[in-house]
Structure to design on (123 residues):
């Protein structure tokens, strides 16, 4: 698979993830604590898709690395908020289990920062 096809595939995957995050947010209980935390994962979960898409249009190697780093950070933050929801017993794990699994998988797909730097700055 060439780089362009892989990028498109990952754009679609992260966008589908963002849509799933939006739907999960809509199904949350309506109490204040759950909604506040829900807005946090809504923001980070949709931001990772937007930032991945932006990284595909980076204007420089440094811009590319910066955007990819944001994607990784937002993915980890999203996982954190799901863990908080579950551990505080505001939602049952099965409600967010597949989203949590995707949060764990996405960083494995994106190369580490040092590999990105070598790939983009030292072709």
């Amino acid at each position: 698979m060439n780089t362009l096809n892989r990028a498109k595939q990952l754009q679609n995957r992260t966008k589908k993830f963002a849509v799933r995050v939006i739907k999960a947010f809509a199904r949350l209980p309506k109490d204040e604590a759950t909604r506040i935390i829900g807005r946090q994962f809504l923001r980070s979960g949709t931001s990772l898709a937007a930032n991945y898409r932006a990284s595909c249009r980076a204007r420089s190697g440094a811009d590319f690395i910066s955007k990819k780093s944001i994607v990784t950070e937002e993915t980890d933050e999203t996982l954190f908020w799901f863990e908080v929801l579950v551990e505080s017993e505001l939602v049952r794990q099965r409600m967010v289990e597949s989203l949590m699994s995707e949060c764990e998988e996405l960083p494995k797909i994106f190369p580490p920062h040092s590999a990105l730097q070598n790939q983009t700055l030292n072709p």
